[in-house]
Amino acid sequence: MQSPCVRAPRTDGEAVRQQLEDAELLDRDRRIAVEGEDIFVPIVDPDAVPADLEVVDHATGERETQTMPADLLAFEPSYERVGEVVVIDEDDPERARALADAIVASDVPVASVLNRASKIEGELRVREWEVLYGDSTETVHREYGCEYAVDLAQVFFSPRLATERHRVTEQVESGEQVFDMFAGVGPFVIPAAKRGAESVGVDKNPVAIEYLDANAERNGVAEQVTGITADVRETTNEYADWADRLVMNLPHSADEFLDAAMVLAGEECVLHYYDIQHEDDPFGPGIEAIEAAADAAGEEDTPGYDVTVETERVVRSYAPHEVNVCLDVRLSRR
User: Fold this and answer.
1) pLDDT at 28
2) Which end of the chain, N or C, is less packed with Cβ atoms under 10 Å?
3) pTM for the complete prediction?
4) What are phi and psi of 192, to 5 degrees?
């Protein structure tokens, strides 16, 4: 039977499936099909599929019923998967226990179930976890053809940003010099290197850089990746005027590092600036901060930068009336 599907490379299959599931577009009554190097993910509403995904008609079979956590619970569950670690966020211990038991009893692949036990804390951006099943907070997460070993108890990592990371790194051209100012385990750095860039990732967390280096090896790009444990402001002498592309994914305080970004930027540089702002004016404060930093960069021996905003993008809702946004900005030396 022919049914509407999203066609994608097999290497992107899990990330595309997760994106469609998050958007409630996955057709759970049809089986995913694989043909050659392509994967075909059945969908329920072709008109609602994001424009960057390809919709085609393809033969799919009926899917045998799988048991999911929702089938075993009296409430609608919410959880995320990072590799074979399943993450939940439940304040009620009884509800958390019921959800963990349902996940383990379901057909969801799972090695550990973790419940968030604190907010993201400190300059290393880590949180505490309650382990409800299994004995490890470490796993291997796969997205868009890359693999990332990660220990959620020691480093920051969010699977929710997979589509956004892919959007940014798909813009990278071979030969670029890409600098991630808050790199974590490398989910921007490594796909940029796979596209032919020379990539530098900086993070204050030494464990994150250990994982970044290991992940560069895992993905076959170790020769193109440099990981540095430091406050990024300590790297500006070595990498002044170096970057063709800068990633600033520290949305609560990226504005505090814009002066360093202007030093790192080359003659022409694309800046991916992440911010969290009120929904009434999600982009204005970030644009003002970037423009002020670009002007200030010209007050000493350099002429500063002209600022061109190329993309204003809402990445996701963050809190009531607050959104996580990205500004893609081109900096051009005056």
Assistant:
1) 81
2) N
3) 0.81
4) -65, -45
